Amino acid sequence: MSALAARRRTLPGFGLTMGLTLSWLSVIILIPLAGLFLRSLELSPEQFWNILSSRRTLNALRVSFGLAFAAACVNLVMGSIIVWALVRYRFPGRRIFDAIVDVPFALPTAVAGVALTALFAEKGWLGAPLAALGLKVAFTPVGIFVAMIFIGIPFVVRTVQPVLQDLDPEIEEAAGSLGASRWQTIVRVILPSLAPALLTGLALAFARAVGEYGSVIFIAGNLPNVSEIAPLLIVIRLSEFRYADATAIAVVMLVVSFVIIFAVNRLQRWAQSRIPAR
Amino acid sequence: MTIEVKNLVKKFGSFAALDGVDLKVNDGELLALLGPSGSGKTTLLRIIAGLDWPDSGEVTFNGEDALAQGARERHVGFVFQHYALFRHMTVFENVAFGLRVQPRAVRKDEAAIRSRVKELLDLVQLDWLADRYPSQLSGGQRQRIALARALAIEPRILLLDEPFGALDAKVRKELRKWLRSLHHEIHVTSIFVTHDQEEALEVANRVVVMDKGRIEQIGSPDDVYDNPATAFVHGFIGESIVLPIQIGDGAIRLGDRQLDLAADGLAPGASRLFVRRHDMLVGPPGSGAFEGAVQHVRNFGPVQRAEVALSGGETIEIDAPRDKELRAGDTIGLNPRRYRIFAG
Q1: Under an 8 A CB cutoff, do A276 and B136 touch?
Q2: Residue A194: closest CA among chain B residues belongs to which residue?
Q3: In chain B, N or C terminus with fewer CB closer than 10 Å?
């Protein structure tokens, strides 16, 4: 590119927007994260290891990541079904249901936590019949799981919805006229076409559930080693002025989340590469 | 395979997409359903394929009731206007799809599937694209792959919905010829839908002209062009000059002018006279049924197209041979060598 061409771009403003983007992302995201890492460096590797390998920390991390993943999987399945119904069928109240999906986005998480706790408490509307069946939800890990499903569902629905809307019903008709059963059409045609969006939805729902604090702590019961989530443990350590402990746990959460998101991203790229843009 | 359609009716709300359609398709023929959009041609095709269901009427394949079966059981190859290829599959897998989803009992083994797909890709002359994805192909290539995919299941009938509608003019012309020679080779009973009269006349053995959910005319391409059965067909196929005329007292009038044309056997009242542009022969003033002043002349490929203001007040466009001397301002006589009059 000649100097003249470089000066006369058709879309000016590259320098300005790029500069703003970099500085903004640095201030908002990169510098705080770097601070977190620096703080954790105050610990010797041995101290770091001791904090992490303590039973309470390990259990908190297991509860957070394990339940978040389970909840994301449930959301993936249920979210796909909801998207299917919302996109493919016209029924009375469809718009209302469509709007309801966004409620967990908008509701303050503490409100959600209180509502869920009231609902699933032993005397609550749902808690009482479930307790009669021997399933205790509120103040157990199951409660955490329920809260995580609640806050994660819109992520799956809203990522998959536009992609399914774009998916031409003709490809289903084509599959049918080629002799595919309904099941074969879903498994061989529809799901592979939606795979990148489904993976994105899964990753977002998972990330949100891992980081969720407000709605979970109300319903969790917060019993150390049983129903204590990692973010809560961080808060507890902070209130005990054990800042290094808190940052150590935070760093681990950060790294694990990053690795998982990165893995899902690669998977999604791979799926996307098999469906190049039209 | 013969297809018979009897008194088919299909309504979308209050709109009648098909309003009593009867049609018989002979074994091995290549039939065109021709009509403007909204004429019901695609609906008819989709009902035959089992992708839509009529409100009433019958569809039979070789005398057996097709409406009792779904799209899956009918064994019909369907080609969509926008190809409907599976984006996440290679060309090879797209073509193999119909073979892979067969019930296990009749499914071919992998080697047989591979050789069949290879055969089909050779047939559509695209074997070198087997490992590409649909997004990497041109429109014409995609449509040929879609056709190979439809043929993989050895369909009893091949149905094509505006197969070349999304392609540019040049590719479209090539594919038309190609489709005709392909049909010659495989001889499967085929129906294709088009709104392009040239396409219908060039490719099909028989043409079905449809309008507003009804069949206007069924005939050979020559038939529908030379002997249009209705005013609609005359106006839709080929360019026509349409003149509002009055019939009465054994004479035909355009405005105040009595035309020197036979009015025998015509019902009195308002009618329309249809003439093809190239059937209006130019002569000296006073020599023909019409007279008019040439407004301007443009060369248009092999012909010259002249705009002529008739003395009755109408302005028409005619096509004359290039060697005919025509200049703006000339007064000329016009004689229709061939014309049709339809009441109304």
Answers
A1: yes
A2: B88
A3: C
pLDDT in tens, B240-256: 889 888 888 878 888 87
| Interchain pair A178, B101: CB under 8 A | yes
Nearest of A159, A123, A121 to residue A137 by alpha carbon: A121
Give CATH for domain B3-234.
3.40.50.300
Q: Does domain B239-343 have CATH number 2.40.50.140?
A: yes
Q: Does B163 touch chain A (CB under 8 A)?
A: no
* Nearest residue in chain B measured CA to CA from A270: B88
What's the mean per-residue pLDDT of chain B?
A: 90
Domain ranges, ordered by start, for chain B:
3-234, 239-343
User: What's the gap in Å between the CA of B69 and the closest CA on chain A?
Assistant: 12
Q: State pLDDT tens for residues B133-143.
A: 998 999 889 99
Distances in whole angstroms, Cα of residue A30 to Cα of each of A37, A154, A166, A212, B239:
11, 27, 35, 21, 69
Cα B201 to Cα B198: distance, rounded to the nearest angstrom: 5
CA-based nearest residue in chain B for residue A171: B84
Q: Among residues A80, A42, A67, which one has the least CA distance to residue A229?
A: A67
Indicate the CATH number for domain A59-273.
Answer: 1.10.3720.10
Q: Where are the domains of chain A?
A: 59-273
Distance between CA atoms of B316 and B117, rounded to whole angstroms?
54
Chain B environment of A166 (Cβ under 8 Å): none
CA-wise closest residue to B306 among B297, B314, B331: B297
